[in-house]
């Protein structure tokens, strides 16, 4: 397969994904929606989400503008040292990355805020049509994200033929994702926590009670956090995995003298998207009406298709089988991480049940239990990622034995393991975006008085969304782990090629020795970063939630008839949306800037060796904390649901109250801090790679 | 200074410490204690503590017996490969380590359980005599621990003249500490949590209300956890820091051809103990009666004395000034870590106050806030340790420039930074052991009806203990961090000398490259270990607390008149002590074994490179989690006290209830898991060093 053909094939498949997304959108749009009350509430959600997105994008545009100017001046090398054409190209690549990412997020919100009401109304006809509305609405996002990612990478590579520019594109995607995920995460959890604290805990009213002023904001949050934010996050991971594979792939291509490894990257990524398209098209609920099964079965179809089609392609086009197996190892580990996550968050297993039992002795034991199981849950995933990197390395290394380039090939193997793991990301995003849509539908059904039966159906759909979400989150973290390991490889490749191309006097970097004090220095500081980053986000949620709780209290006290639920009295939902929006946009800045600035400081203090250690420390502690927070959050959520379903005292008992405390603590863990760490790791890795030449030239020690 | 003189000097100073401890003990013993009620309660505590200690030591003796047999067979090399005399010596060194550690713990408990009642009764005369009883009681422990440590190391070195045997001695100390800290930590927090959950939260009775069956167990717990367990922990750190410095020091001595660096290790350690003796002797409360100031001022005296006396010794005996400065850097970082910790746990600073304010919105925000600040708090300490290791390395490296041994000297510099940081450990233990003694005294004053005024005095003493404890805990963690970094250096030294001495064909280890897949593999798994270890301990506390809460409920329900406080009706405290004891001894096994076994498995799977990565991952994530848990625990504790002192609603308010939840969650964080991680890291490092030859010979990949 020629490189041109691979790129064109990738572009073709991404256009196919867009076409399919268009068809899905039209399908969702033509579903019934006649209920005026639901329509009006859904319009509130829609306009709230769009307002947030617009304000967020304005801030991000300013940020991106500043960064673009810095790139123009300094990257890939200071403009007075290098080639200004390269700097301009890099700037354009960077801006394209931000635009593609923003575009995908916008589409996701656009469709999700239509699909929610369709799903709610379809639930009146039964669970199967309702499921399909929710799933296909989410799938638009899945297709748009992966389509944009593949299209963007292919175009940038086609135009520039320079993998370093893909790093620029990827950095654009990442820097947008960093703020979109963090901002959306703060928004959604501010609203969720405040709504719960006042509604469920203080007043004892139902989840989506229309009297609660924060309920609309909570539903807006589902969209901006779990649809747009999550989409930006996985867009970022997908682009980053391709970027790392292309940087290292180009280096090994130079060794073998043709472009076969670059070709492989595009071929595999395109096949992954194709498999996702087929998987999504075949998602349908069986007669028994089990939505979890329906979601999982389409994932299995996608996985099996990817395994088979890449094998076929490898056979036909004579790709390296060793790389194929490295890629499949990545996919396998994704499954292991998913299963492990499932054990710790499944309500038929010990962790969730023991935590529910511990709640009988009050909220303190709920928290201790959840934290403990969260800590335990990191082991299988970390061991899985460790083994997969190790095995992918060992499988791929022999390809370089003849030429003495084992390390380069081994790193390429790891990067292809990441590509393999992320190959089915289109399917994963579809499943993920399904969650907030049915969650919204549940809210609409309750606020629109569609009746108990309809709410029960949306509840069942929602619960399946939560189960699947826990698993896909594990997948996303595992993928980020492997991606960043390969970004570390990309970093070395970049530094060394800079040394050679620019004729610098520094010795080539062979690796990062822990006993080198600069590396160890970076290792310790890098490990602290995800903790601090999470802390800043969660403190933001806390501060913001305090403001919103005060506002809800004010409304209940000053609006006559609101608490009593008097006919026609509506809460001032827009006030809550405004607080969530402004707070989120204000609070996301310190966390994002902290991560960026400390990377740059460490680079200037300790040079490339410190940065190598910094990245390693960041990956290790980032994986640890992301897994811990996502899993304990999911566990508390399900443990609360387990109690609500009648165990250990059931709804309204003291046990239930304790379980609700756990759930509330888990909210920012699993939906703000935990998943944002992924993005933080990627951003930091990309900054390091992009600034490698600068750090090489200027550093204190 | 000759080596013999340095060793004899060390032995002399440790005997001096024992003599001083004896004098302190006699002083404490001759203080008044005439109140029969206090005497009888104090006897209950004393016998409870001794029962626990006896049962614990029986289990540990069995464990040590098994390990001793394994050492005899396999260490330093399999007996059929090596020299049986070495194996016998190593076995004896190991057993001596366990015996010395157990002995120090036993002395500590012995004196603490006398000093508690003396302190309580002295409070009737005023705060100054009461302070002195508490402090001098704690100082016995401080002197005994450091005296035993220095004496043991000096004797083993004198007899064997082989630093590897010090590793064996250190391993004995560590393996005892691992279980003593974990077991004591589980005991104390089981009792504390259960007493609080039923007493404060459910029934709303005071902290040390004599009706509560768990109160005596809680006071026993202070002794077995915070006196014996903490003593074992710091004994372990002190021995380990000397062991690492002696291993690396011997290697650099070989380079220079005399024993001047080994001499320095002994001289500095002995001077540290001497400075602590003088500091303790001068601890006295000023006229204003501020106990925190009194504790801190004696620490300052010790620190200043150490700085001055080592400078003097360096000048007189012509030691290397570069090593002197490396050592002082360590001490300085200890201070920085201490100050940073103080900021996050001081109730006049934002973190504690914001957490108290967050508690107004319920326990969920208390937890989120505390976790967030706990995460933030890791940054200054990690950066401090990173810089100190970096600077110590850079200061010491030039000593090896002439002979091309920069790395060896640099590592010696780091190990001496750890020795410097731990030089004042005698003082730190004295301050630390003071805490549980005055805590006990407070309980005795309340249970013995000594009146409000006396309780207020013990409260003031207790509060100072908490403040100082938070700082010294930061110190201990920082010290463990530096120690383990130097143990990593000791590990390399051990492996390389084994390769040379035994004529193995393996290439010498230059370092651990993160890009080596075995190193990275180890790094990821090593990072997961402290999380899993903590989880197992905390789950143990949870399970045990559930059992004890059930028992307390049973007593309140079945013992007539207990709840009402009828004259003469006593709870069955011994039942609670029994539950705490048996539970702790049962639950400490899985955590300890997990840490030991996974190290061995990784070594056999990936060889010495995987172990190198494993140790690095373990240090990094261990520091992170230990700092996080200790600091957030301290923060919650003080935030609760802040509310109790009348802020944000004060005692009995909803805010207070939420703050109590935070405090309860913080209990196992700061007193079970957090500080046990130190020991876990040291044990794992020592196992790695001791088994290095075995891992070199037998590994799968």
What is the compact description of this entry?
By secondary structure, chain A is mainly α.
Strand content of chain A: under 5%
Number of strands of chain A: 0
Mean pLDDT of chain A: 87
Structural class of chain A: mainly alpha
| Shape call of chain A | globular
Q: What portion of residues of chain A is helical?
A: over 70%
Chain oligomer state: homodimer
Number of alpha- plus pi-helical segments of chain A? 18
Largest interface: A-B, 83 and 83 residues
Main sheet makeup of chain A: none
**Gap between N and C termini of chain A, in Å?**
47 Å
Uncertain segments of chain A:
none
Give the SSE order of chain A as H and E letters. HHHHHHHHHHHHHHHHHH
How many domains of chain A? The number is: 1
Radius of gyration of chain A: 24 Å
Task: Tell me what the structure shows.
- Two copies of one chain form a homodimer.
- The first copy, chain A, has 701 residues and is mostly helical.
- Chain A has one domain.
- The first copy, chain A, contains 18 helices and no strands.
- In chain A, helix 1 packs antiparallel against helix 4 and helix 8 packs parallel to helix 14.
- Chain A is globular, with a radius of gyration of 24 Å.
- The first copy, chain A, starts with a helix and ends with a helix.
- The interface between A and B is large, with 83 and 83 residues.
Layout of helices and strands, plus pairs?
Two copies of one chain form a homodimer.
Chain A lengths: L2 H27 L6 H39 L9 H39 L4 H34 L2 H41 L11 H42 L3 H22 L9 H26 L4 H25 L4 H9 L4 H34 L9 H17 L2 H23 L4 H50 L15 H42 L14 H72 L9 H37 L1 H6 L4
Helix pairs in contact in A: 1-4, 1-7, 2-3, 2-6, 2-16, 3-4, 3-5, 3-6, 3-13, 4-5, 4-6, 4-7, 4-13, 5-6, 5-15, 5-16, 5-17, 6-7, 6-12, 6-13, 6-14, 6-16, 6-17, 7-8, 7-12, 7-13, 8-9, 8-14, 9-11, 9-12, 9-14, 10-11, 10-16, 11-12, 11-14, 11-16, 11-17, 12-14, 13-14, 14-16, ...
